[in-house]
Write a structure and sequence with these properties.
Strand content: 5-15%
Oligomer: single chain
Shape: globular
CATH superfamily: Aldolase class I
CATH architecture: Alpha-Beta Barrel
Mean pLDDT: 91
Number of domains: 1
Structural class: alpha/beta
Low-confidence stretches: 5-12
Number of strands: 8
CATH class: Alpha Beta
Length: 284
């Protein structure tokens, strides 16, 4: 069973690279396993963490299909309560043994289901209790960015979420979703995402993470494709991507992960060089 653990980094500037596939409301139990196997074979890059998040009904066939592949499985959501009279919902305990990751607070959940930061914070707590690694999504609307409030809006999302979750999660991953760039034809730039990643880590530091905030991976999630991923991964503050529609296409995922591998290997070289320099400084 996958663990949801990426290789830890000793240098805060050298974080793991992660590509998360969010299949949304696509695939069925009959075809999801075959697609997962095809993606795993086309993205065999051990330097890159890979996670596939299929619909709930496809979790077991995808888990079984990916066994031994190095690709981990995640859920697209979970309920904010432990159990109860919540028809049609899925609790964290129901996901145990099926997933090691879970997306929390996706913009489509906020938009279509009215999810608040408080409720999302409770979902983080459920992930923590079940040993599931959360991918927390944050991001601003177009009018908020145009008003110059993007960083303030995301900072408030983080503050309210962590107040509700009651405790910091050391295994947290953040996915920055500029909502205005998802399926709208508008395009975020690498510099926009890099600026927000810096602001996110600053906010995390102020909210209790301290120096550990520099180690929290921040992904970009705004209509990512193999053609656009390079601009974002060229930014040192961006650590991968949360991929939507393109994650259903084997060739697209192959291209995205191949580009991510370049970043991951470059970071490994930097880490080895930094470690070597540290060893030399410690020589008598």
């Amino acid at each position: 069973m996958p663990t949801g653990r990426l290789v830890p980094c000793d240098d805060a500037a050298v974080r793991p690279v992660l590509i998360v596939a969010n299949w949304k409301m696509n695939t069925t139990p009959a075809d999801a396993g075959d697609l997962a196997v095809a993606i795993a074979a086309a993205t065999d890059e051990p330097a890159v963490g890979r996670v596939i998040c299929p619909p709930f009904v496809s979790l077991q066939p995808v888990r079984d299909a990916l066994a031994g592949s190095g690709v981990e499985v995640g859920a697209q959501d979970l309920h904010h309560e432990v159990s109860g009279a919540y028809t049609g919902d899925i609790s964290a305990s129901m996901l145990e043994g099926l997933v090691s990751w879970c997306i929390v607070g996706h913009s489509e959940r906020r938009r279509d289901h009215g999810e608040t930061d408080e409720r999302i914070g409770h979902k983080l707590a459920r992930c923590r209790e079940a040993g599931i690694r959360p991918i927390l999504c944050v991001g601003e609307q177009l009018q908020e960015r145009e008003a110059g409030r993007a960083i303030a809006v995301v900072g408030e999302q983080l503050r309210r979420t962590f107040e509700a979750s009651a405790r910091m999660d050391e295994r947290l991953v953040i996915a920055y979703e500029p909502v205005w760039a998802i399926g709208t034809g508008l395009t975020a730039r690498g510099a926009d995402a890099a600026e927000m990643a810096e602001a996110i880590r600053q906010a995390l530091g102020e909210l209790g993470y301290g120096a550990r905030a520099a180690e929290v991976p921040v992904l970009y999630g705004g209509s990512v494709t193999s053609a656009s991923i390079g601009e974002f991964l060229a930014e040192p503050t961006i650590d991968g991507a949360l991929v939507g529609g393109a994650s259903l296409k084997v060739d697209e995922m192959a291209g995205i992960v191949a580009r991510a591998a370049l970043t991951a290997r470059a970071r490994q070289v930097i880490g080895e060089t930094s470690s070597g320099a540290g060893d030399r400084r410690g020589d008598p």
